[in-house]
């Protein structure tokens, strides 16, 4: 009996440590995404209040390049998330690396997509500075906000992914 109590205590301690890591990583990812969301909104406000100071310059090649870049980054962020969070990939990571590897993948992919959203907002703002057309900031900001909300992590979805895809420890001591 004492060995099973020790094993149970160790299992509870490991579960508690994992839950603390889950909370820490989720909070870091959620805070980063929220900060980038606020930064995107602030860029739109700077564009709104500074439009009288921008010099209007028509630049058709830049217009096309910015629109295509924003489109590619926006659609690419969706494709990136769907690829990185595909069921088969998460099953493989869960079985090879366990819950910690799965948690690391969830955090890393969320941050990558959030930075793509921030890049969209930055490109739009830079195009506004170059052309004086505040539409770039507003249009890119709208797409960036959509990407950031799309990648915003919820703790319940991370818990569900870990419960579903993480490899269960084998209780067979002979193996």
Brief summary of the model shown:
The protein is mostly helical. The protein has one domain.
Oligomeric state as shown: single chain
Distance between the termini: 22 Å
Task: Tell me the helix content.
Answer: over 70%
Number of domains: 1
Number of helices: 5
The proportion of residues in beta strands is under 5%
Largest sheet, described in full? none
Structural class: mainly alpha
SSE string: HHHHH
Q: Radius of gyration over alpha carbons? A: 22 Å
Task: List its salient traits.
mainly alpha, 175 residues, disordered C terminus
Structure explained in plain terms:
With 175 residues, the protein is mainly α. It has one domain. It contains 5 helices and no strands. α1 runs parallel beside α3. The chain is elongated and about 60 Å long. The protein starts with a helix and ends in a 10-residue tail after the last helix.
How are the elements arranged and paired?
Layout: H1 2-50, H2 60-84, H3 87-131, H4 135-151, H5 155-165
Helix pairs in contact: 1-3, 1-4, 2-3, 2-4, 3-4, 3-5
